[in-house]
Amino acid sequence: MSGNFITKEQFDALYQNCLDFVFFMKKVNNEFQYVYINHEAEDVFDESPIGKNLSACLEKEIVELIVRNYNASIEKQKPLKYRDFYLFSDTKRTSETMVTPISFGGEQYILAVTKKISRQKVMEEKNLFLQSLFDMKMDPTILLASDLTFFDGNPKFQQFFNCKIEDWKGRPFFDFPLVALEDLESFGEHLRNALNGKGQPPVLFKHKKADGNESKFLVSFSPISTNNQVAAIYIQWIELTKNVQLKEDLRKMNHVLSSYKGALNSAANICITDKDGIIEYVNERYAQTSQYSAEELVGNKTSILNSRTHSSSFYEEMWKRLLDGQIWRGEICNRSKYGSRYWVDTTIVPIFNSRGEIENFLSVCFDVSEKKIMMTNLRNIEKTFRLITENTNDLIVITNEDGIVLYVSPNHEKCLGFDKEELLGRFYFDMMADRSRELLKSEFELTLLQEGEVQIELQIKAKDGSTFWIETYITAVKDAERDEVYQFVTVAREITQRKKMEDQLRFMAYHDSLTMLPNRRYLLMEFSKLVKEAIVSENSIALLYIDGDKFKKVNDNFGHDVGDEFIRNFGVALDSSVRDLDIVSRIGGDEFIVILTNMSSEKNIRKQQIENTIERIQQTLKNGWTINDHHFSPTSSIGISCFPEQGQSIDDLLEKADEALYFAKKTKGKNSYHFSR
């Protein structure tokens, strides 16, 4: 009857199929000890951590972070959520953990659920990094969509050619008076080659600048591919000027390139090989990820990292594309020096010499080992957002500042049964169940508008009236110039099953696992409410401390299985003998507590009410029950205490009732009761 309040079998039933990491910990002195972990979390450890302390299983800095948050949750006695990463930090563990404190039997436990969210960190870093590279470019640069319409351009392009990109977005490139009439055919041919994914050296063209003067430019056309298809063309103009200006531009360019190199080295794994795949250079991050030193890598072929995960045709297709002068992008599983496998999101770019021949390959890699991430589309944040939302199971909603729905992800139709048109233009609040609607409105006013984001669990309504639970993250999007909220982005995922599991776990924390009756912890939690109700209604409360007579003989004569069934029937008998507004609780062994509420404050009347209840209990026990062809008609001894005469707290009443029970057993024998004085 002792031990953890949840068994290994119960824990597995709740969490074994959960895709997040689940840890059930026990606080021992100033340490936390592993009690259970689910199947998904087993891959974190080289050997089972069960029974071991955190400090014996994890690195010091990780332990300090975990212990700090565990203790904070215990101190506040409420759930706490924390992240373990910052943008552009070196940490490889990018996750979010929900910590729930649990007290049981005088012991302190922690239930920690860790979600892997490395995708979110990588996407945020890459978007910020790539946008900064584009805007800082020293030369005129534009991005054309695959239909040769303006998609974006940098400030230098606007300055050189007197073109406001915002006015030209979505318009055909050749509508802009930049390319001379005699160059149209040649310029168009280079665009077509880029659309076909062909790499090519820069080409010389003449263009008229914003001041009216004509100048020569080296123009490069670079295809940008996603999913093996050209999605855009990156065009760059480098002006040919006098030597002095060229030197100054070269100096500036070297400075910018050094900055780019520093940014790339801090954000990505970089490798340069010759055309045969022999490594000539790796940055520090690349070496750290592979667990080789730079000296061990340089001079070897990249096949030193081959994990045997991919087929030979995979590499044949990759090299065919690269040797054709095309950019290759994909996910590669490598093997480190010490045998561990890791995934990298890799872009390999052919580098051409002045003769247009391939001389090197530049690989830019992002470590995506924890979860292979969806490729980021370079066209812009909006299209990347649509690509993600239309291929995710999350429910994504965008509303304006008034809460009117502007966009819903397609899976709303499947989950809620509404057509997209039925949701657009509605208030987001109207999609919620009544209680969740009020809660969401409150969070909008108190938290979201102040802090800019909120996490909340809500019940959402489907078209057929059914509801299900969602875990919702809402972010306020502000106007960069006016610093005013103009949109809200909501990302939600269904957690109905998790809520059911949480309810079951909460029930188990406050109920006896054998009889399913409330336990002592439940009484401690509820008694203050009962006292307040009794004071308001000017009534009394009676506490019956009930002990089964000679229960040990049942265990000795019939075994513990019959003994457990006997205890369950004993609890059923007590519960059937009292009113619905009364509480029957098991506090251990064959000891039960019955709380009689709404009792008369007149002592004589109350005494008669109590005795009537005891008589029903004794008669129900006398009628008994049958287990394995053995009939049992048990008796019980009962001690009685009353609020407010014998005490103001549950502890006072339990102590008085226990004393009365002892007196009844000692002086009156079995099947007796005694009132505390």
TrEMBL record:
Record-linked NCBIfam families: GGDEF, sensory_box
What protein name is recorded for this chain?
PAS domain S-box protein
Looking up InterPro entries in the UniProt record yields:
Biofilm_reg_signaling (IPR052155), GGDEF_dom (IPR000160), Nucleotide_cyclase (IPR029787), PAC (IPR001610), PAS (IPR000014), PAS-assoc_C (IPR000700), PAS-like_dom_sf (IPR035965), PAS_fold (IPR013767)
User: What region holds the PAS domain?
Assistant: 249-300, 381-451
From which domain of life does this come? Bacteria
Where's the PAC domain?
A: 328-380, 454-507
- Natural source organism: Viridibacillus soli
Q: Which CDD domains does the record match to this protein?
A: GGDEF, PAS
Query: The GGDEF domain covers which part of the protein?
Result: 539-677
